[in-house]
Amino acid sequence: MTLLSWLEHGLVQASTATVVIFTLVVTHITIVSVTVYLHRHSAHRAVDLHPALAHFFRFWLWLTTGMVTREWTAIHRKHHATCETPEDPHSPQVMGLGNIFWRGVEAYRLAAVPETMNRFGAGCPDDWLERHVYAGHPALGIALMLVIDIALFGVIGLTVWAVQMVWIPLFAAGVINGIGHYWGYRNFECPDAARNILPWGILIGGEELHNNHHTYPNSAKLSVKPWEFDIGWFWIRLFSALRLARVRSTGPVAAKVQGKSSLDMDTAWAIVNDRFRVMATYAERVLKPAVRQEQSIASPQTRKIFKRAKPGLIRHAAVITPSHERDLQAALSASEQLNVLYDLRERLQAVWSKRANAEELLEALHQWCRAAEESGVQALREFVAELKSYSVPATA
Asked: Maximum CA pair distance of the chain?
């Protein structure tokens, strides 16, 4: 092989199609390393990984990103603990979408201070390789990746390497941390601005389902609707089948028992565990039908008021905007029924927001269910009947 031939095609003499396929494969492995190892395993302990697989991911991230497990884990844990506040390391609601989308990596670097590492970085690798190689020389890995890419593909390897280097800063730091807290749809009203960007979590390993994750951060599975797809969960299932992973949690511990029609302690704990889904069901089956009914009999001008009020009726109080609040109050002033339903929504949320012992929690639920049934609204009676079917599932 001549020097010119090597510069043009590298050691493997790959075609353009092969180079493109290689690039897509290696960037996908990097995404899987981030979502399965850094995110679901290290930060949230939602899945346990075999030491060999965990070490492969550490090595691969060292080669392709230079990210340090403890730094990423600590910053992400702090993000959940301080979400959408000035202490959040990367909130577009606080810092601006443009700053996070284009300068997300800089936000990570600024957040990687000793205080954050000490407070949020517990349980991360601290062996000789981590101290002296992966965390000790993070730039060495990406330099080695550059040499590998150029050796394999020649000068086009520079482009392959550049794509690898920009993949995580763009998609993880920019798209997920930025757009994922700014634009998209919400299945659940969690107390922050997290949104699902797309229902198909493929390109970014399932992280596109960001609202689902912020609602149930300790779940190894990010999809919750039948039409949502989380490719990270596919890989976890495959690793589990190969005995390389063990799922620890897939969301709230709750079940519905057909024919159950009374509130008991199991019901209370199951409802609290599944409270975000309970509130989403209340919005879908009680509030939204009531708004549609009010719109059908209202004047054209009042219909507009009800239409604008929908977000305020269902949003968590922590993320409701001033404009949503104004629209909400206008709608409540125009409809006595919406007033009743919204008041019951707030009272239901207050049941688990207060610090209470088991007996107080159960009594509060009893009181709420009686008030809902006495309202005379059929949708509320049906909702109460569903609540009474909740129970903590039996363990094997």
From this structure: 87
Domain that holds residue 319: 256-391
Sign of CA dihedral 94, 95, 98, 102: negative
Asked, for residue 37, whether it belongs to a domain, the answer is yes
Q: Are residues 196 and 275 in the same domain?
A: no
Task: Outline where DSSP puts E strands in the chain.
Answer: 47-49, 200-201, 229-230, 245-247, 255-256, 390-391
How far CA 117 is from CA of 123, 124, 139, in Å, comes to 11, 10, 20
According to DSSP, the residues that pair with 247 across neighbouring strands are: 47
Residues present in the chain in total: 396
The tally of domains found in the chain comes to 2
Indicate the average pLDDT of the chain. 91
Phi, psi (deg, nearest 5) at residue 105: -65, -40
25 and 153 together in one domain: yes
- The verdict on residue 138 lying in a domain is yes
Per-residue exposure over 189-204, b if at least 16 CB sit within 10 Å of its own CB, e if not: bbebbbbbbebebebb
Q: Is 134 among the domain residues?
A: yes
Specify whether 367 is located in the same domain as 317. yes
Contact between 213 and 177 (Cβ < 8 Å) = no
State yes or no: pLDDT of 251 exceeds 90: no
Lowest mean pLDDT among 92-101, 120-129, 160-169: 92-101
Q: Are 252 and 279 in contact (CB under 8 A)?
A: no
